[in-house]
Structure formats: C-alpha cells, structure tokens
What does this fold into?
Amino acid sequence: MAVDAARGAGSLRGARLRISGIFWRRPWLKLLTLLALPVGAFVAVYAASLGAMLVSSFWTSDSFTAEIVHTWTLDQYRTIFDLGDPTYLRIAARTIGMAAAVTVTDAILAFPLAFFMAKVAGPRTRAFLFVLVLLPLWSSYLVRIYSWTTILSATGPLNWALNGLGLPDAQLAFTNTAMWIVFSYVWLPFMILPIYAALERIPGSLLEASSDLGARGARTFRSVVVPLALPGVAAGSIFTFSLTLGDYITPLLVGGPGSSLIGNIVSEQSASNLTFAAAYAMVPVAVMAIYIALAKRLGAFEAL
Amino acid sequence: MQSRAVRIGLGVWTALVVGFLWIPLVIIALYAFNASPIQSWPISDWSTHWFSVAWHDPFLRSSLWLSVKVGLAATAIALVLGTMASFAMHRFSFFGRDSVSFLLLLPIALPGIITGMALNSFFSFAGVQFSIWTIVVGHATFCVVVVYNNVIARLRRTSPSLIEASMDLGADGWQTFRFVTWPLLSTALVSGALLAFALSFDEVIVTTFTAGAQTTLPIFILDNLRQGQQLPVVNVVAFVIILLTIIPVWVSQRLTTSDDTPAVGRAAAVTAQTE
It folds into this structure.
C-alpha cells in the first residue's frame, strides 16, 4: 500500500514536472493558455457588444412593436443630425458643454489642492489628505448625488445657512446649475489624483534650479510647474469629461425639465427604440475618441 | 520658492475643497438619525427608529442579497480572468499586446452608458433574457481591469530572480506558483477583489441596462429616490453604505504598499495600463 501511494505520488509529481517542462520549452503555449480565456471572453462579450451596438445603430425599430427591423439605414443618424429639428443636436451640445464646464471647474478646484498635497504638506498630512480624497471616490456614487438633493432642497441645509447669514433662499434644486455643482462634486477626486501624481513627480531640484536662475515664484510656477503638470490635468480631464458625457443619473435626480443629457435619451429609448438609442450612444463614443486623441498629444498618457 | 502667504492660501483652499468633499457625506449620515419622515434642516428630533424599519424591509433585504450575490460572482470572474491576463501581460511581449490591454481597459474608460448600451444591444441581439447572470456579465467586464491592475503592479515589483531561484532548487511550475508566486500575490489579490466587489456593489448605470426585473441595492435606492418614497429608509441605507465602502478601501490601502498602484479605481486602471 505504502509503496503504491509513493508510486502514485511519484507519478503525480512526474506528470507535474512533464507539464511544467512542456510549458517551459514552449513559452508561446503558456502565453496562449493564459490569454485564451480572458481575451476570448472579452472579445466574445465586450467587443461583440460594441459591435452589436454599432450594427444596431444602422438598423431601425418598428415604432409599434419596438421590434428591430434588419434593414440597413442611416435614419437614426438622420434624426440625430436633423437641422430642421435640432432637439438631439441641442441635447448633445448641452451634454458636451456641461462636460467642459465640469472639467474646467474641477481643474480649478483640484490644482491648488494637489499642489498643496505634493509640494507643501509633510508626509503625514499628505497621507491623510490622500485618504480624505480617496474615500469619497469610493463611497456610493448614488448616495453622493442624493446628498446634494437634500442639501439643495428648498428646506435643506444650504438655504438654512444662507438665511442664517441674512441672505435670501437660493432656488437651485432641479436646475442646470445644480447639475453642474453635483457633477463637479462627484468627479472631483478623479481630477485631483492624476494632477497630484504629476506634481509629485516634479523633482524639488528643478524648482530650486529655477529659483537659482533668478525666477520668482510666479515665473517658476508658469514656466516649470504648469508645463510639467499639464499632462496630469489632461489625464484627469479625460475622466471628468467622459464620466459627465455618459451620465444620466445626475440629470435624473438633480436636473430640471430642461436638463436632459445624451445619457437620459439613450436610457429612455433603449427599451422602446433600441436602434436609435444605439446610434445616439455613438455620439459620446465619437466625442471621446476625439478628446482622447487631443489629450494624447498633451501627454496625458505619459502622466498617468 | 513659496512665500508664507502662498502656503497659507494653498492650505486654506485645500481645507475648503476637502470640506466640499466631505460635508455632503456628513449631512446624509446625520439625516439617517432624523426622527421625522420629512427631510428638513436643521434636524429637530433624533432617533434610530428608521434603522429598525430598514432592517425589517423585505424588499430592501432581497435587493441587498442580490447585490451581494452579483458582487461575489463578478469578483470571482474578475479574479480568474484578471489574474490570468496579468500573468500573460507581465511575462510576455507579443504582437497585439497593447490592443489586449486597451480592450481590458475599455469597459472602465468608456462612459457607463456606452458599456451598458452595448451590452443591452448584445443581449437583445443574441436573444438572451435579462437575469442575474446578465448583470454579473456586465459587472465582470469592468471588474477584470481592477484585479488585473493590482496583480500586475505586484508582479512588476516582484523580482524574477525569486522564480528562477525556485526553479534552480528543483521546484516544478506548480510548486513555484504555490510556494513563491502565490504568497507574494495574495494581498494584491485580496485588495483587487475588495475593490472589484466595491465597484460592482455601487454600479448603477450598467445595471439598469443589463437587469430585467431584478433589483440590486443601488436600483432599490434609485427607484425610491425617483419616486420620492421611503426616503428615511434610503437615508439609513446611505449611511450604512458610506460606512461599508470605507472599510474595504481602507483595508485595501493597508494591504497594498505605497509602491503599488494606489487603489483609485478608474484612475488606477488607466495608470497601470499606460506604464
């Protein structure tokens, strides 16, 4: 018995060694084994999904049954780019405008904070600030939007504070301004972290060299810090821009009647008119492709 | 270079922005203890009444349970696929390597509405009925990259000579994996899994496109918010979620050292990809 067990274990070990040997001698086989499942799954599901969306956008939906009719047509794109009825163009413009406003706001809010974290604060303060910035990013996105609906509501903390200061009520609930504030709030950590990463990488000696060469603080900031931090800003802006383009929860919860963004239309139409929803979802894809190409030229991907 | 005034100015700005980040979270946490079902500020009566109401809400319980199941399943898929991909990408350079890393990154880099709409088109194209499994597939697509990033960051910090030493000492591939690679990776895997679970647990947009009649916890919250119903219960859920998401992020931060990619989700996703 014991001998059998030992032989069994021996042959098991032998088999393992043989398998190890096969993989060792043929690295490509190992690569194939490792990659087949993840890449196969991603191509079969994700790439196929993007393909299905693209193809659907060139079909049409029956307006009564919502069934997809498999005939090739540009009708969906004609509806989007209809200059006679620019409803969808206007919504797209509003979405892009909102994304741009949020990106600029977040860059302004984030830059001094990131600079303070990277270049002024001591190591302990820096670590503490890092956690303070990181935690809101991970706490529920819905909860963070919801908290603003309570803050901005007519009987909420904001008006209470304003009245306390002797100021009149702010009528912000369900407006585009509210949407702008909430988007800026929700995506802010996505801007802070890449800028911080870019600033942290600037060696102190560069700043000293600049001042040794006679540059004052403002000049060093303009000629040394800003150019080196710009890729970080570009990287952060990809997140703030892309996330705003594709959001529909914020307009739904804090926006008003005239606050629909691309995402709201896509979400509303996905059940009744899938082909149109698919075509309209291609708009943010195209905008992001252009945006990422521009950011790449600014060095956003080296900064990350 | 920095004058005292500039430093003070930066410090004040930092304090204000951190306040902006945290005040809404504090306010929603306080509302959880509001005795009145009407939300108005300041809160006059305090109570923990709504915690017991939330605890006994069967619909809330079932959506929480669904979220946990989806999160666990998506995390399991992400662990397998993400780890395999990171081993392949770390050890080999091959034609199309950049395309593979780009493909893994896409679900998290593209806006949620696109991932959601694409999966929605795919499922309707393939005639798949929406179920818990369509939600799991949707979540797994963007969770893979989180595990992948955590593992590959750890692999990059691991010296290849450890593996070679193990081989030199006569270990086969499995033993090397079991006694050398695995102990080195385990904390990165735990941290990646926690973050993947947290992402899945919080996801709304992709879920709305891949769920049929199923209600996950975020969908439960969203439905109640849209209809303005059960807001005191939502407050309690919000408070508990804030506490619960803080824990995994904190643990994950402790498990990965500062040399690893910081656990910043989407931001980290792009970071590791472009190194």
